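Researcher: Next entry in the queue.
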Amino acid sequence: MQLHSCGCQARHDPARSNLENEEKAGEMADKQREARAKTNIHAFLQRRSIEQRRNYLARGRRFVILDVGQLSTSWISAVRNWLARKDRASEVTMDDLTAELRLRGLEPPYDAVKQELATRFARMNEGTQKKAGREFARQVGMFVRESDKPLH
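Model: Structure for this entry, 152 residues:
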């Protein structure tokens, strides 16, 4: 018999202890994988944001003349245009406005278009949602593999 921390005596069951230890180890491994995945996704999004700003600067920072109110209003319109058309020109405008906001230390007014984005996502069929998820995962995977390469 073994004395538990609560003071009662119990039989020691090695099989149960091993199972509990395996479950704890599995949970720890899952948490480590999840933390690593979150770190990789965050790094990917950070790099994408930096590239977005770099591209915007290379194009000449066309929205520098707008004040913050105009910039926010233009960003909301650009997102709505992108949702309606899904064309490259709308995407570039939206990205450039996002970059200008971030260069000023501001985040885009996501709350203003949150419902429209949620509605658009909800209208996507399951196959399209999965395809978008797989594409995002592929891009993150490519980023991670590229990041793991040694620098020469």
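Model: Helices lie at 14-58, 68-85, 88-103, 114-123, 126-148.
Researcher: Noted, moving on.
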